[in-house]
Structures are given as structure tokens and as C-alpha cells.
Hints:
InterPro entries: Prob_Methyltransferase, Put_SAM_MeTrfase, SAM-dependent_MTases_sf. By secondary structure, this protein is an alpha/beta fold. Helix content is 37%, strand content 13%. It folds into three domains: 1-138; 142-219, no CATH class; 230-447, Rossmann fold (3-Layer(aba) Sandwich). The strands form two sheets. A seven-stranded mixed beta sheet has the order 5-4-3-6-7-9-8.
Amino acid sequence: xGLLQLILGGLVILVSVTSLFRFYSAGFFxxxxxxxxxxxGAKAGYADFDMKAFSDRVEEVLAKMVSLQDKLxxxxxxxxxxxxxxxxxxxxxxxxRFLEEEIMQPLYTARISLQLxxxxxxxDFQYGSLKEDPLINFFTVEEIRKYISAxxxxxxxxxxxxxxxxxxxxxxxxxLMKKDLExxxxxxxxxxxxxxxxxxxxxxxxxxxxxxxxxxLSRASILYQKPLPIxxxxxxxxxxxxxxxxxxxxxxxxxxxxKNPRRGYSKCTGCFEMEKEKVKWVTNSSIPADFLMSDVLxxxxxxxxxxxxxxxxxxxxxxxxxxxxxxxxxxALNLGAPFNEMIALRGLVPLFFTLxxxxxxxDNTMDLIHTSGFLDGxxxxxLMDFILFDWDRVLRPGGLLWIDRxxxxxxxxDDYMYMFLQFRYKKHKWVISAKSKExxxxxxxxxxxxxxx
Length: 453
């Protein structure tokens, strides 16, 4: 019993001494003249050091040490209370488990947390203010820290962008989702990634985007089959074996039928059924807000070449446009069903994309932007304003904005109409029709003006 207490006490003393030595070596307890002048007195030199992240990390380590100390004290008290009832010998397996799980693991995590703290040294201030990589003391997972650290170019040469370092970026909301992001980036380099695309999508939807790149291998379906030829893939359901179904309620494409009430998704009802998809935009509808694709393309004959379909779907709009020799990129999120996989297996281009993001296209490049089923009357007006201005940015002069069955409540219609009309686009089509007693559809085809300076 005494030997166990000595071992536990020695471990606590060892980690405490190690911690104190680290801070001592940084100058926190030796207030040398140079260090004091730069670290404590010169605000200009210290302005770029993230003191809050540093303080949070120290508090985190201290909390781990306090928790470990409380656990050790409680264990010793239990041993003292039950010393008469305990047998002299405990199994080596139990003893090993106790040391590994209850002692060594907490000590290891505390030690790693301390080792990862980057503390400025006196020489760091010799050439002006300290330049610290942003958030370097905020995250504990080493792979994130490596990712966000600036990477100096080899031989110190300036790269094609005109800088001598490369800076990787992450979304600012990643700071609010530290635990989720660290789980996402906690992997063994070069091994297979976890099947965690839904975690990545959760981070994206909540604003942690762009996500950091990862150095692990993405998983594919074990039974992946060769995709169908392009002349078949557009209008034929793909092979079930080409999708990883582990994170969906359904386990095959037939389960995604609109007849199944437990299919796992609600938007785009029936969009996994090719017989229903085939009639969209090519046959007359009873709803006046439905436009035929041929009528829209006739507005600018021969001018529609590339475009973006911004909505929820399985790529049918892009498939129909492909038949007209128009290349369309389809935005997609896997909202309860494999939308991205379905679009790709049809031989089309899915863009894994959220409303939070700036479009990854240069100014004045798209001939057409089509929106349906995603941008509706639930959206905040200010958010919608940012989105529409971004669409206007990438749409070329003379390009078309096709608003396809946008719906909202009647009382909000004037507000949303203003959002679309503020850009002073030329109206080629503009139709308002009833969706229900309280809601209406708005469909329009608008042309961007030249705006030449």
C-alpha cells in the first residue's frame, strides 16, 4: 500500500516539475530585463501573441491536473477505508489497467497540452513585433496546428502568388466548434479516414468552412462497381453498391422512393425516381410558375454554355441541360440521402456546397444560374441579400437568372420581390401563382445588364 502511494505521489511531482520547468525556461518566473521589457512592457511587440488562447490552454492543463489529483486522493481514501477487507495481492491486469487509464493517460494528455503551447522567447522580439500563427495555441490536435501554421516556401523563394509563405485557412466558426473540429482532424496520417462525412457536413452547415484538408485516405464502398456509360447513366438508377449507406436510414435507392414514409429525407420528394424526374422542364405543367427549358433557352439561343444549379436535387436539371450541350454544376448536400453520390453516378458534377459559402467562381463567368427547392421563404432577408449579390458577381453581363418556383407567404412577397428586383435585371418572364391559400410561387427569368464603366 505504501509503495503504491509513493508511486502515485512521485508521478504527480514529476509532471508538476516538468510543467514548472517549461514555464521557467520561457522566462515566466525569471523576469529578466529583456524579457520583462518585451513581454510585459512592450505592447507593440506583444500585440500579435494570442494571450487568450495561451491562458485558456494553461487553464485547461491545470484543470486536468486538479482532476487527476482529486482522483488519486479519492483512490487513496478508498484504500485506507477498505484496507482490512482487501486482499494483499491484486492482479497484474487490474494494476496495469489502473495505471494506464487512471494515471498515465491523464498525465499524457496534460503533458502533450503543455508541449503544444508555443511561448515566445526573448529573441522572438528582437526584430519588431512577434508574428504568431493565428489560433496556434487554441487547438490541441497537432494536425490542425500543422495545417494552420504558415508554410515557408523552399529556399525562401517567392511563389506564383507573390508571397514567401502559404497560409491555409479555416472558417471563423471553427473556433466555436473546437471539439467537433478536433474530432474531425484526429486521425492517423496516411491511414483510412473515419466514415465521418456527416461530421464534416455538420461543421460546414454551422459555418466552419472552409474545412482544413486532411492527410488520411477517404473510404469508398467495398463493393464499388464500374459506373454506367454516359448514354445510360443520365436516366437510370445507379448501382446500390456504389454508395456507402452507413449514415443513412435507407440502404438502397429503392428505399428512397417517395412511397416510403421513412426514407430519411423530406426535400425533393421523388427526386430519386427517374420516371418522375424525366418529365421535369420538358412537359407542360398545371402550375403557371413552371417554365419549359426550351422556352428559357430560346431567350438567348446559343449563348447558354455553362451554369450553376443552386438547389436540392439529384442533378436532373443538369442532365436535361447536358442534352442541350450546356454544362451545369449542381450544388448538393447529403441531407438524409446520397444526393452528391447520385449526381456523380449520373455522370454530372456535384458541388458539395452550403449557403454559408462564397461561390468558388470568378467574376462574370456564368451564363446561367438556376435556383429551385432550396432558396425559399424561410431565408433571412439579409442573408439572401449576400447570396444574391454573390450570384450577381459570378453571372456574366447578359447572363440569365432563372428563379424556379420560389415560394413564400403572401405577406412576405413584396419583400422578396424587392430582393430580386433591386439589381434592375431585364424581365423576360415573371409569374406569380398560388401555392396554397397562404403561400405563393414566384418564377422569373431575368437578364443581367452590362454595367460597363
